[in-house]
Design a protein that fits this description.
Helix content: 25-40%
Structural class: alpha/beta
Order of helices and strands: EEEEEHEHEHEHEHHEHEHHEHHEH
Number of helices: 12
Bound molecules: pyridoxal-5'-phosphate, zinc ion
Oligomer: single chain
């Protein structure tokens, strides 16, 4: 029987509960699902709903904008793109999953579609969420599709451009004075009255992000890659992916889990610190990868366990690596936001690590992901790629414009 269970005191809750957390402070997760059944994959469904049999919501009442089943493309690197001496041995084959191609422009739609499907099933009419970024946009988009009223709490000093998408979907923006934690606190107060559709705490969100792992497995000819490299802030993609591969292993469909490699910005790397058992730094620097700059992620210990269980690791990327990866992506025609470029920077760094001696087993296949679309951050991308350029003058010919990807 499907049920929610507190990860700390193990108290059980019905899947209909309106609680978003256990009274002991523990976090709820879904248990008791059926083993993954490959025969239940609906091949005519070209969205993540092909896995409806493994999703804990009613397919016939789903809230869908056609999300998922994103392309998995081969991403070979040239010699110049991986610096350093190659050691003998075959390079791993690299793939990128194009999760910036989602209805709201980020992979967060995976979680939002399942979460809002559940919310509509429960007959809930009003929800609250806190995020000024892609999670807010995804929840607002699927709330619009579901006909649910959404209140999204955001820091008051956020750049207005980021909020335009959320507001356009008809969500009510609630600006909160102060920092991110003040915003979260205000959302929690509101959550005492309305359902808390949190992308971090709500277990149904992870039930959506897990479809990333199913898709990778199916698109690789029903096999697991040696490693998956993911940008990580709150860990919703990491934890969902881990869930999927555990289910596939428990169903006997893969032999072992892929190594899960988490990518963090060097300016804000609490997972890296926890994984290395270092004390957390007090201050976080500024980073281009604002979407993963989460100073104290709620699911930190679970993320550390996940990395250890999969034989994974954490890679820190600095601002220069992120900018280089962004330049490389757009230079190849992939228009992604800087946070997604951090994930790509991690993939490049991981691929390079096979050049150096002393590294463990060399996987034959490594999957990375582009998590967010560049159209979300066009101004920031332009500033980064053309820092010296003035505002374009009226009547300017644009002849002097150089290709972004060229050096
Ligand atoms: C949310 C997000 C991430 C990281 O996801 P977490 O769940 O916070 O780990 C990475 N990239 C983009 C573009 C995102 O929006
Ligand atoms: Zn508990």
């Amino acid at each position: 029987m499907l049920r929610l269970e507190c990860d700390s005191c193990k108290k059980e809750f019905s899947t209909e509960t309106l609680e978003w957390r256990c009274s002991c402070g523990g976090i709820l997760d879904l248990h008791g699902g059926q083993p993954f059944d490959p025969a239940a994959i609906e091949r005519r469904e070209h969205s993540l709903w092909r896995y409806a049999g493994a999703l804990p919501v009613d397919y016939n009442r789903r809230v869908s904008l056609g999300e998922g089943w994103t392309p998995l493309v081969s991403f070979p690197l040239s010699r110049e793109e991986t610096s350093g001496d190659k050691r003998a041995g075959k390079d791993p084959q690299l793939f990128l999953k194009l999760d910036h191609l989602f209805p709201s422009g980020s992979y967060k739609d995976r979680g939002a579609s399942i979460l809002l499907s559940k919310i509509r099933e429960l007959g809930i009419e009003r929800i609250v969420e806190d995020s000024s970024g892609n999670a807010g946009a995804a929840v607002a988009a699927y709330s619009a599709a579901a006909g649910v009223a959404a209140e999204i709490y955001v820091p008051a000093d956020n750049s207005p451009g980021k909020l335009a998408q959320i507001r356009s979907y008809g969500a009510r923006l609630v600006p909160v004075e102060g920092n991110r934690s003040d915003t979260a606190a205000a959302a929690l107060r509101a959550a005492q009255e309305h359902y808390y559709a949190s992308h971090v705490y709500n277990p149904f969100f992870l039930q959506g992000t897990k479809t990333f792992g199913y898709e990778v497995w199916e698109q690789l000819g029903r096999s697991a890659p040696g490693a998956v490299v993911l940008p990580v802030g709150n860990g919703t993609l990491l934890l969902g992916t881990y869930k999927a591969f555990c289910e596939l292993r428990n169903a006997g469909l893969i032999e072992r889990l892929p190594r899960l490699i988490a990518v963090q910005s060097a300016a804000c790397a609490p997972l890296a610190e926890a994984f290395e058992s270092k004390p957390p730094s007090r201050i976080a620097g500024k980073t281009l990868a604002e979407g993963i700059a989460i100073r104290s992620p709620a699911l930190l210990s679970r993320m550390v366990e996940t990395l250890r269980a999969s034989g994974g690791a954490v890679i820190r990327v600095d601002e220069e690596q992120i900018a280089t990866a962004l330049r490389m992506a757009v230079g190849r025609g992939f228009y992604i936001e800087p946070t997604a470029a951090a994930g790509l920077a991690g993939l490049l760094s991981y691929a390079e690590s096979f050049d150096t001696a002393g590294h463990g087993e060399r996987p034959s296949c490594v999957v990375g992901v582009l998590t967010g679309h560049g159209l979300k951050a066009s101004e920031k991308i332009a500033q980064l790629l053309y820092p010296q350029e003035q505002e374009p003058r009226a009547g300017s010919t644009g002849h002097e414009t150089k290709g972004a990807g060229r050096k």
